[in-house]
UniProtKB/TrEMBL annotation:
<dbReference type="InterPro" id="IPR007900">
    <property type="entry name" value="TAF4_C"/>
</dbReference>
<feature type="domain" description="Transcription initiation factor TFIID component TAF4 C-terminal">
    <location>
        <begin position="1"/>
        <end position="87"/>
    </location>
</feature>
<protein>
    <recommendedName>
        <fullName>Transcription initiation factor TFIID component TAF4 C-terminal domain-containing protein</fullName>
    </recommendedName>
</protein>
<comment type="similarity">
    <text>Belongs to the TAF4 family.</text>
</comment>
<dbReference type="GO" id="GO:0016251">
    <property type="term" value="F:RNA polymerase II general transcription initiation factor activity"/>
</dbReference>
<dbReference type="GO" id="GO:0005669">
    <property type="term" value="C:transcription factor TFIID complex"/>
</dbReference>
<dbReference type="GO" id="GO:0006367">
    <property type="term" value="P:transcription initiation at RNA polymerase II promoter"/>
</dbReference>
<keyword id="KW-0805">Transcription regulation</keyword>
<dbReference type="Pfam" id="PF05236">
    <property type="entry name" value="TAF4"/>
</dbReference>
<keyword id="KW-0804">Transcription</keyword>
<keyword id="KW-0539">Nucleus</keyword>
<dbReference type="InterPro" id="IPR045144">
    <property type="entry name" value="TAF4"/>
</dbReference>
<dbReference type="GO" id="GO:0003677">
    <property type="term" value="F:DNA binding"/>
</dbReference>
């Protein structure tokens, strides 16, 4: 089911890309006719380019913000199975208790 959803997503994005290319290509044509449909396509092409520029700018800002924040801090691990420090102390207590019981 997930595969079919992914296929639908890919086909939808391909269709959108084809439409976008068609609009941009039509907007670049230097027709001397005063075609209202061509004017609409040129306006759509401008809007698409503005949206793409905003998206690129937003991605760059996100990368820069993440770099400024820094990497995520990892939790401290112990030698007892790679658990966090609090559970590591619990394991150490159990190990000490077993040593005492053995004597």
């Amino acid at each position: 089911l997930k595969v079919l959803e992914r296929i639908d997503e890919v086909s939808a994005t391909r269709k959108q890309e084809r439409e976008k290319e068609k609009i941009i290509c039509a907007a670049k044509s230097r027709s001397k006719q005063d075609d209202p449909e061509l004017a609409k396509m040129k306006e759509q092409a401008k809007q698409i380019q503005i949206a793409e520029e905003r998206e690129i700018h937003q991605k760059a800002a996100n990368v820069q913000a993440q770099a400024a924040i820094g990497r995520r801090k990892r939790t401290v691990t112990t030698a007892f199975g790679g658990e966090s420090s609090s559970s590591g102390f619990k394991l150490m207590g159990i190990a000490l208790q077993r040593c005492i019981d053995v004597k």
